[in-house]
Amino acid sequence: MSRFLAAIYDGFMCETERACLGAWRAELLGGLAGAVAEVGAGTGINLPHYPPAVTELTLAEPDRAMRKHLSARRSTEPCRAQRVEVVDARAEVLPFGDASLDAVVGTLVLCTVRDPAAVLAEVRRVLKPGGAYVFLEHGAAEEGSSRLWWQRRIDPAWGVIADGCHLTRRADEAIARAGLRIETSRRESMQKTWPILRPTIRGVARRA
User: Rounded to whole angstroms, how far apart are CA atoms 147 and 167?
Assistant: First the structure.
């Protein structure tokens, strides 16, 4: 990701964070415990939402510019997790042993990674049996809708502007194909952002 996008990301998302994303993050992360990894941790916007029951939190972010903002936030913003580490790691190749984590978190990640199937295969690999994959993603609108028509039309240019972000991926289908059982999910419109970005899905999937 370019330095420019890393620099403006939080500002671009701030109204949406206040309108809905902050509450969604708190809802998703508040019940986590044990050893947790966040893939594509970005600028660290999830940090304040991790509870003290998280004994080990590893924030994996491969982009140098994003990681710089993440490390800065880690040093200035409180995080209640007991131990926090920032690592340079791609979601497709995670530095964790098989079945070693209680939970993996991915928020607004699958839209941008080059190979969602590879990422989700890694997520499944590192999760303990019964471990949770906590997800929050934007993606494709309903089939047949005018919004999906516009998303498909804009997607190629959007990928260039937004450093590889895709508008028409369906996170729930990719998660199910990876062998993770979706336990809870909720679709909702992301507020205070452009219409092409509004369709979202969030929830929890588990390794069987």
Answer: 11
